[in-house]
Design a protein that fits this description.
Blueprint: E1 4-12, H1 16-26, H2 31-40, H3 46-64, E2 71-89, E3 95-111
Antiparallel strand pairs: 1-3, 2-3
Helix pairs in contact: 2-3
């Protein structure tokens, strides 16, 4: 059985389809390489995902005694979290619904 560690980020106030663009960049990559990719990605979702990856790496090293150089991103996926419903005033006294979506990000690191 291969050694893994998991980190979860709940309720990121960014829509899941926007976060998926960022996590697709790091899936399958070496942990150090993934950190570099996220550091220079020009997307708003890159910062919380980078912090999550950093936390997962530190958890793997400190809590599970894994080698930081052997870690890679084996799984990373985004699920939709709660949706905030808001109203936007429009012409002729109407109102339009605005859905502000949130995301849950799950990241699994494994040893190569």
């Amino acid at each position: 059985m291969e050694a893994t560690t998991r980190a979860v980020l709940h309720d990121v106030r960014i829509a899941p389809r926007k976060v998926r663009v960022v996590v697709d960049l790091i899936r399958g990559k070496n942990a150090a390489e993934a950190l570099t990719v996220l550091q220079f990605a020009e997307k708003r979702a890159a910062e919380p995902v980078r912090k999550l990856l950093d936390s997962a790496i530190h958890n793997a090293v400190n809590n599970h005694s894994m080698d930081a150089d052997a870690l890679y991103v084996s799984q990373v996926y985004v699920d939709q979290a709660r949706t905030l419903k808001r109203w936007q005033p429009r012409a002729f006294g109407r109102a339009t619904r605005i859905l502000k979506k949130s995301s849950h990000v799950t990241l699994v690191l494994s040893v190569r």
